[in-house]
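Example record used in the benchmark description.
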Amino acid sequence: MQAEKIQQHGEELYRALRGQASLAPLTEREPAITIADAYHISRHMVQCRVERDGERIVGKKIGVTSKPVQEMLGVFQPDFGFLTDAMEYPDGARIPVAGNLIQPRAEGEIAFRLRKDLQGPGVTEADVLDATATIMPCFEIVDSRIDAWRIKIEDTVADNASCGVYVLGRDEVDPRDFDLPALKMTIYKNGEFNSEGLGSAVQGNPLTAVAWLANTLGEFGIPFKAGEVILSGSLAPLIPVVAGDEMRLELEGIGGCSCRFV
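Model output (structure tokens):
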């Protein structure tokens, strides 16, 4: 795709984000779009947030890693996006929907906080563990600028992996003390049980997912940086939320995380 087209679509997605509007899928309008094109569009969209709104990139996220999410969206390979400081909310936050989110869905995840830089290719699960300071429970609230979530992989990639906002739990622990694939997460919506999942839902092991991301970013010359937060992917199906909903999760043996939508 020509550079002019990449900038045009990146600008369009940025305007949709700021105007709280949704767009027809790019894959319907640009049938020849490739995943590489989509990543370049995403980077232009994120750069608009950095340059125009003063946002800082503070981490990365992996999307579409678990089978339940892949089946729900009809997208069958992982993708990645960039996290900015404006996306982060504290545990227990009241998150506005109007003027902030378009069609949000909540995901329960395990977040990694890095203690040192890491860059692919060649990153292994052991390298990820060595580079990680702590893990913590997390809600990622994904959102799509694509109308009615009618996405193919190229659409969600171009849309910064459908990033919305995220909430980090207060309890941070050393990942070396836990069997990450066996970690059990239980998710509640409005005080009632909603779903549950294990760490193994994310490509068999959250470390595997984070290593995949480090190596994929390495192909673009993008490193993980010390202090960054990496969201490793949803352990359970996406949960649509609206104003008035309250979400809570418990990561067995570690702690919880919650937020309310207003």
